[in-house]
Amino acid sequence: MRVSRLTLVVAFIVLLIYLTVPAQETVRTVRRAKPTTAPAMPTNVEPIDTAGLKDLISKPKDKPLLVNFWATYCDPCRDEFPDLVKVDSDFRPKSLDFVTVSLDDVTDIKTTVPKFLAQMKATMPAYLLNVTDPEPAINAVDPKWQGDLPATFLYNAKGEIVFKAFGRVNTAALREAIERLAKN
Amino acid sequence: MTKRTVSIVLAALFVITAAVIAGSGRSNEVPAPPAIGATVDEFTLPDVNGQEHTLKSLKGKNGTVLIFIAVQCPVSNAYNDRMEKLAEDYKDKGIAVIGINANSSEDAATVKAHAAEKHLTFTILKDAGNKVADKLGAARTPEAYFLDANNKLLYHGRIDNSQNPDAIESKDLRNALDSSLAGKPVEKPEAKAFGCSIKRA
């Protein structure tokens, strides 16, 4: 019987681990949630070229910068967007700057792209990369990046990449990286 | 209820804890692609009908183009006609074009139906476990690899610079094939473009 009780205790611990991990996430999200009283502004999407992009990521910063490369045609980009909007509302402007860079066609700059951003209630500055040859832009961001979307980069105030994700971002890991920078 | 039961439960606890920890810090990094000039190892993959093929059995006498493609990726789909034309144009020149679908979200039947609908007649292999995608460090669709007759990697990257056929300025993959056929070195052996990330298993 003693052994059986031990089994029960161990099973209970396993159950606790399962319950605690998502619970922590929920608590964290609830604690940071802000009242969403401000109406979602129609999002203006600015065109940006390779020089503009280089300038954006290398200019002197007073806080970390998060850059998300995405496209309306990219399923995992759309899937992760609500998580990124939450990250934006939790950290910007106090401890983070956040911009998105769309890789949609420039003909979508006043239609599909702002429409999606408005649906997402995304208010961070939005750009659309308008270039004929995408390679210099990809290499300017990260020579190891093959151009797969989505791609997310977090820069510290010195302009160094401290976190990156290709494909759908692990939001918990991203939040930890932002918090780590905020503490420094 | 023995000591063995306790051991099994403890082992299960360890495995579950490890899985939880691994899951929370999940990394989605793609293995690095082989260097230009490296020889790509022989591989075997099934086609969309389940028939197994080796690279050796499919390759052209003057080389092989492997292109990672997708069913649902609009970038990959923008290149359907260009990939089919590439296969047609280089068939007689001894270069084989082979498509590889490594998306875990797209099964062989889906890939087969899509190929029929889009009139893709070149061989398409299904890389269900990302075996070849990992070996080649393939990250996105479309992403091309050109191997010479000895499976030496001569070119890796995009098909050309633009999804929009009217804005093509640099036919990087065709340039690589033409250089190789002419016995010249490939001037630009790597070129990047945006694409959809491969959904790995």
Helix-strand string of chain A: HEHEHEHEHEEEH
**Please, how many helices of chain B?**
7
The radius of gyration computed from the alpha-carbon positions of chain A, rounded to a whole number of angstroms, is: 20 Å
Q: Could you describe the largest sheet of chain B, including whether it forms a barrel?
A: 6 strands, mixed
Order of helices and strands of chain B: HEEHEHHEHEHEEEHEE
Name the CATH superfamily assignment of the largest domain in chain A.
Glutaredoxin
CATH architecture of the largest domain in chain A: 3-Layer(aba) Sandwich
Q: What structural class should be given to the helix and strand makeup of chain A? A: alpha/beta
Q: And the CATH topology of the largest domain in chain A?
A: Glutaredoxin
Categorize the overall geometry of chain B.
Answer: globular
Shape of chain A: globular
Measured between the Cα atoms of the first and last residue of chain B, the distance is 38 Å
The portion of residues assigned to helices of chain A is: 40-55%
* Distance between the ends of chain A: 53 Å
At the first level of CATH, the class of chain B is Alpha Beta
The CATH architecture of chain B comes to 3-Layer(aba) Sandwich
Largest interface: A-B, 39 and 43 residues
Low-confidence stretches of chain B: 15-27
